[in-house]
Amino acid sequence: MDHERARVLVLAAHPDDAEYHAGGLLAAHASRGADVRIISVTDGSAGHHRRHPRELAVLRRDEAREAGRVLGAEYVTWDFPDAALFPTLELRRRMIREMRAFRPDLILTHRTCDYHPDHRAVGQSVQDASYLVTVPLVAPDAPHVDTAPVVAHMCDLFTRPYPFRPRVVFDVEPCLDVIVRMLACHRSQVFEFLPYNQGNERVPESEDDRIAWLAAWYRRMIRPRADHFRAALVARYGEAGNRVEHIEAYEISEYAAPLADDELDRLFPDPASSPGGVPRIRVEKGPQ
User: Fold this and answer.
1) CATH number of the domain to which 36 belongs
2) Which residues, in sequence order, are bridge partners of residue 66?
3) Inter-CA distances, 100 with 9, 97, 135, 143, 258, Å
4) Closest listed residue to residue 62, CA positions, set 83, 46, 41, 76
5) d(CA 105, CA 55)
6) Which domain does 22 fall in, by range?
């Protein structure tokens, strides 16, 4: 096993979930040459106020693919319908086959308590697959693995039935530009639907102004994470943790493989300690 590089699989509900919740960690891994594969389980066809679902599904698949190119990662969109996802046997077996084929060291996904039913369905299905991926007679057409991967839940601030309990927190300031460029590829969402859905906020016309607007929006949206987990930031960074404003945090699933202390740096590299602060990632403007 290469102790520097990791194989990272994201199983998220929608195109853009991965970068919104885990873009910093994915950027840090990409800068180290890791194999990163991002999967949107649904087709994203419900996320708009004007476009037809069939048109939207095609567009969002293209947008996701472009976002993956920013990292040099494969970004795949499955065909399960958006806003209609259930933790079915079909979905569980699809995930088991994917895990066995890619053989990740780390899986990133949603928690099972979340505001969005698609997020909950993905989180539940990953949990259900986490042990069964090692059982030969389950989905026997795909060779089983001997050990389950580590599964980490992406950050949320919900408190019921229990609050998020991070094992890992880190500052993502060094790679905010990369995250924003990835998000900008999802133009049907960040420049069209989300402004409408969040109160008809006005989006600038020029591409440069849009990127600046999106950066400010993203910073505003994730800023509460740092305050919520301030004690953990101080524990990690000392007094400097009081000045950190933009973070990612990860909770390790107790239903999959445990995270060993000697695997922390390999599976959760701090963006600030990545080569040159993630400069080797190809940052591009999203499609016009």
Assistant:
1) 3.40.50.10320
2) none
3) 11, 5, 11, 7, 18
4) 76
5) 35
6) 7-277
- Kindly state whether residue 248 falls inside one of the protein's structural domains: yes
pLDDT at 238 over 80: yes
193: Cβ contacts below 8 Å, ≥ 6 apart: 47, 48, 49
282 within some domain:
no
CB 168 within 8 A of CB 268: yes
Strand (E) positions, the chain? Answer: 7-12, 35-42, 74-80, 106-109, 150-154, 168-171, 247-252
Which pairing describes strands 247-252 and 150-154: parallel, antiparallel, or unpaired? antiparallel
The confidence score (pLDDT) of residue 174 equals 95
Whether residue 255 is contained in a domain is answered as yes
The pTM assigned to this predicted structure is 0.94
Round the average pLDDT of the chain to a whole number and report it: 94
**Is position 288 within any domain?**
no
Count of CA atoms in the C-beta half-sphere (13 A) of 198: 12
Q: How far apart are CA 226 and CA 128, in angstroms?
A: 31
**pLDDT on residue 87:** 98
Buried b (16+ CB within 10 A) or exposed e, 133-145: bbeeeebeebebb
pLDDT of residue 223: 98
The stretch 39-46 carries a mean pLDDT of: 98
Write out the two tokens for 243.
């000045």
What is the distance between the alpha carbons of residues 64 and 48, in angstroms, rounded to a whole number?
Answer: 16
Supply 181's token pair: 């460029």
